Structures are given as C-alpha cells and as structure tokens.
User: What shape does this take?
Amino acid sequence: MHSASEAEVVNRGLAQMLKGGVIMDVVNAEQAQMAERAGACAVMALERIPADIRKFGGVARMSQIELIESIMRSVSIPVMAKCRIGHTVEAQILESLAVDFIDESEVLTPADAAHHIDKSIFKAPFVCGARDLGEALRRIDEGAAMIRTKGEAGTGNVVEAVRHMRQIQSELQQLLGAPESECEILAQTYRVSSVLLEQIRSKGCLPVVNFAAGGVATPADAALMMQLGAEGVFVGSGIFKSAEPEKLAQAMVHAVVHYQDAGRLAQISRDLGAPMPGISVADLPEAECYASRGD
Amino acid sequence: MSQCVGVLALQGGFAEHLSCFETESIMARPVRHLDDARLCQAFVIPGGESTTLMHLLVESGLGDYFKQQHQDGTAFWGTCAGAIVCARRAAQPETVTLDLIDVTVYRNAYGRQLNSRLIALTSAYDAEQDLGTGVMIRAPSFKRWGAGVQPMVCSAEGEVMALAGDRCLLTSFHPELSDGAPLNWHRWFAHVAFEPSSDFKEITMKDHCV
Assistant: This one.
C-alpha cells in the first residue's frame, strides 16, 4: 500500500481546506485585500490577469518578485503564484519566496514543450490544469497536490471549463467501473503508474481536490461548475474586468456555497452591473488557445 | 429525538468530518442554513479559511445562532480555522471571532504552507501516552487561556495542540485527516456532546483511546 509522505499529506490537505471556496486572481495588494474582505479562500498573485495577457501578447512569464511579495504581505489567506509549464527554476524561485501554492500554468507561455516540472521533489504544493482524466493523472503522478480544469482563461466563456470537467468526471466513472483486467491497458493509455489507478479505484475518487478554472465569469457560471462536480472555483479575469468587482467577488463566494439553491442564486445575481465582455472560444486562433498547451 | 452533530458546511474540509462521523455510525449532517442548524444538538466548525468562514457565518446568521446555542450549553468543536472561529480572540492579524471559549489564538503561528508538517501528539496529562500524528496545515497556536480551560493534547516539545473548556473543544491540527489515530476524536466529541453529565476531561478522553 502506498504510504503518503509528509509533504503529500499536508499539501493535499491544504487543497482540501480550500474546498467550497473561491480563489481570485489579483494584480496588486489592494485587489488582494478586497478579495480577502469578500471572502476569497486564497488569491493568485499575477502581473496581468489572463484577459490582459491575451491583449498584451508576447511571452508571459512568472510575475515580478516584488509584486508577489507585496501581495503576500498584504493578506493572511494563502497566496498562490504561477510559473510556466516545465520551468523548474521559476518554481524553485516561487518556493524560495514561500508562496503557499504554485500553479504550473498554461496561461503563461510554456518553457518546455515536452515535460512538466517534476513536482514530487518540491516541498511546496502545486496545482495544475487538466482537460481530461489522463492529463489530471499525469499531473498527479508528477506530484501535483491539486487539479483544476484548464477551461479557456481570459475569455469569460465557461464552455471549455464545462467540457473539461465533464470529460474528467465521465472518464473517472469509466475507470471506476472498468474490470480489473483492463487496468494495465488504461495505465498505458493514460501514461501513469498502475499503482495510481489502483489507489483511485479503491478510494472511489481522485486522490486530490479538483477545482474549476478558465472562463468562469458570473455567479451562475461558478454554481454551474459546482453542480458539475467542481470542489471550488478559480476566478481570473471575471472579477476585475467587471463593472463592480467588490460586489461580484462577494457574489462569487456566496454562489459557490449556495450552488444548489436557485432562489439564493437569483438573489446573489442581482445588481452586479455588467460582467466582463466575453469572447467566443471558437473564434480563437489555435495559437491563442491556452488549453492545448502542455499535455 | 435522535441526536445529530451539525458540521458547518459553508467552506473547507467539512466532507472529511462528515465521513468520520459516518464511519463511527454517529448521526451528522451538513449545516448551510439556520434550518439545518435547528436539527442539530452539537456542532463542528471545520478547517478552511477563517476569514472566509467568519464572513459566511455572519452573512448567514449562523454565527449569532451558534453563540446563542453555546450559551445554552450546546457543545462545539473547532479544528484549525474552526478553532480560530471559536476562540475569544484571534491575533496576527486581529480578526472577528464567535468568542465561545476563553482562548487567544495566533493565526498562521508556524508560518506559511512550507512550514506545515506532521507532528507527534501526546496526552497533556501523560507525556507517555501516544495520541498519534497530528496534521498541521498553516496551523494556529494557542497562546493564552482562562482558568476554566484545560490543555488536552501536547506536542513532543510540550506545546498545547488541543484544549477544552466551556463545552468547547479546540484542535489546532486536523483529526479528520488522519485515520486510525489512537484517540477516536469523533466518538469522543459525540460522547461528551450528547452525555449531559460528561465533559471534555482526561477521563472521557481516555475512554476513547485504544
């Protein structure tokens, strides 16, 4: 039987304590404090929110150290920060800053076209994006303590997050229902150890928490993702690209708690002003689809 | 009427507590609204983010309800962030709490996530009595407590990890994340909560150790 290391227990455990919460992208200390006041369970410290990364173009890298540090000083909730896919040194730097969670993120420009970071050698926890069960399992095998859907960040369009969550859930059900004899083949298909598949089959669920991310723009979007099985929600561009960020931030927090209560959701969705203007994912050129980065 | 533990289910690790109670065949239900709370005779405030939990407790009206219930003698158990919520005072930084028990807690007392760890626990009454491993996640620490509050569990270094008094049990670690611990926390809590003559004392704790 697999015996969990100390880092695995406390890192997966931190993700468990974030469940039922909203993690908000913030680009400065004021936004971080506003997110904390609104009830966010963590913040993601970023130089630019994904919608602006799209607009700005160029190579998107780990944020400035000073910015991350000023956000870490400004709030008492956990602070996450992003590094590029495969950029082990950006991750080492974030760990040395004592960031609470590292997001190896497709929203930044990938640094390695073939490999993800070997997260198992880090003490800091990692969250990674996934479009399907195979990606989720490979990231967990590499040491991720938390999974999120990739969705399509910075679009304000929830369609990809829904696709990815449904995909992960349906493939998970298949795995749980598959006969023992097929497990070896499934492990090969997913390119993961059969030990991991055995753990999941005996536990009946993923061994780490799975959040929704990428295009969640309204309280209704957040509640939809929860109804589809997300354990919490990342909100990136949606909040600070809306007309009333503070109100919307609070509404998101309440929508994730009361995701099964349509009456409450109607109340929560009142008087929020204009949401972020969205963009159609189908119109994005291939190179601008972040979800296809990393596999 | 059968007795039921209410696990606050607004944010955090509530599912883990519910599953621990289920394993022990103790009736428990998630609490999101006052209507849920009214069906319960004891409450667990789980780990999560204490600022998020307080925000949602105030907004839902559950915070005031819990304070009233506690004054009427209902038992409470707070784990990690839940312990911060139950304490009289939370410092570092100062935050609003429910003030159910005369304890001052320091938030994130051990630092950030990199300092989260597993620690060996022993009885505060008997350092020889092994109580298993405690999972500490951005844990708070107990700094000061009133005369009616008794340390129950310590680390090897003698730091207090769990204390009780005023019908309230606080643990700075997460018993719901370690299975097979020598002390069955969920059974102990339910026993004290539903046995009017009983309280969080060494004797009742020992009764629930293997």
